[in-house]
Write a structure and sequence with these properties.
By secondary structure, the chain is an alpha/beta fold. The protein is built from 13 helices and 12 strands. The strands form 3 sheets. It has a 7-stranded mixed beta sheet with strand order 2-3-8-9-10-11-12. A 3-stranded mixed beta sheet has the order 1-7-4, with no helix packed on it. It has a two-stranded antiparallel sheet with strand order 5-6. Strand 11, helix 5 and strand 12 form a beta-alpha-beta unit.
Length: about 325
């Protein structure tokens, strides 16, 4: 049995989160508590498995978008992620209120596994206000239902999954999974590197034992007795290539509220893509810093660019200023 209780207010956590290459500035939990199906849930930000209980108490966020907007306004600018789905959404409305609150607070939102009917329809052309992410579950159920609802509403949607050695990196998993997603209406498929912490390995073996016990020992041997960590970058590239062959983008579009300057959004999106493919961590960090600066500047940067003053305003050196200017020009074109 699931018991619903009113929470004390919006539950948010502001930090620098990485969603497979996309920046997330704040996470919001519409419902707090890991209760219900599926038993093992993969979190694409923490990059590990979360164990859920079949029954217990879920704390519900407010059903007022204004309360969420006020809470979002106190966090750093940039895209949000709304998560914490519940079968009680049709009664409580906390998830949709969180989404509408994020948009009212002048930010776009990634929606992780939103419950049916919990998000608004797509708005006018331009960067999307919301992007739907359907996370793969070890239980193996098709994600097509949630993808189809998003597609019918004109909302970009796709799948996200961990590339696990001895499991989800294998073509026998990848090809059917990506084909099913494409048939369901996915526009993108986002592979992410799993955490290299012991918690992930333990959770992966437990999830494999629960869903396919005859394969659990082989996965245990792979994760504990082979240098699988050394193959992660190569496995990610192979997964992206498989997604591209299935006709899917390998990164989601960057969501933004309708009041954010379109050029800023597109330039930040391009810099994020450059950071994902950077040759070292130092360069990736500089590019991420440029994205944070764009998110927080609050001005249409195309005007500064036209005036020839961008390099004077940009705080991260001339070389990165030139690359950011190129991204702005590309976005403006």
């Amino acid at each position: 049995m699931i018991v619903y209780e009113e929470g004390t207010g919006p539950v948010l956590r502001a930090a620098e989160f990485d969603l497979g290459g996309r920046r997330v500035a704040v996470r919001a939990w519409a419902y707090s508590g890991e209760i219900g199906d599926p038993f093992h849930r993969f979190d694409p930000i923490d990059r590990t498995f979360i164990v859920r209980r079949p029954s217990g108490t879920l704390h519900c966020g407010p059903g007022s978008p204004a309360a969420w907007a006020e809470a979002f306004a106190r966090t750093p600018p940039g895209p949000a992620m709304v998560q914490g789905a519940s079968a009680g959404e049709t009664v409580r409305g906390s998830y949709r209120a969180a989404v509408e609150g994020a948009i009212a607070a002048r930010r776009g939102a990634y929606l992780l596994d939103p419950p049916p009917g919990s998000y608004p329809e797509a708005t006018a052309a331009g960067p999307p206000e919301i992007v739907v992410l359907r996370a793969w579950s070890p239980a193996g159920e098709s994600l097509r239902g949630g993808l189809a609802e998003a597609s019918a509403r004109g909302v970009p949607a796709g799948v996200v999954w961990p590339v696990i050695a001895g499991w989800t990196e294998d073509p026998g998993f990848l090809l059917p999974f990506l084909e099913d997603a494409a048939r369901g209406g996915a526009r993108f498929a986002l592979p992410v590197a799993p955490s290299q912490e012991a918690e992930f390995r333990r959770g992966a073996v437990e999830a494999r034992t629960a869903t396919a016990p005859h394969l659990a020992e082989a996965l245990f041997d792979t994760l504990y007795h082979t240098p699988w960590e050394e193959r992660v970058a190569e496995s990610l590239e192979a997964a992206r290539a498989a997604a591209a062959r299935a006709g899917l983008a390998t990164l989601p579009p960057r969501p933004a509220s309708g009041v954010e300057p379109r050029v800023n959004v597109r330039a930040a999106e391009r810099l994020e893509e450059m950071a994902r493919d950077a040759e070292n961590d130092h360069r990736a960090s500089l590019l991420h810093a440029a994205v944070r600066w764009i998110d927080g500047c609050g001005r249409d940067l195309s005007a500064i660019l036209r005036e020839g003053n961008f390099a004077k305003a940009f705080p991260f050196g001339r070389e990165l200023a030139r690359e950011t200017e190129d991204a702005l020009r590309e976005a403006a074109g």
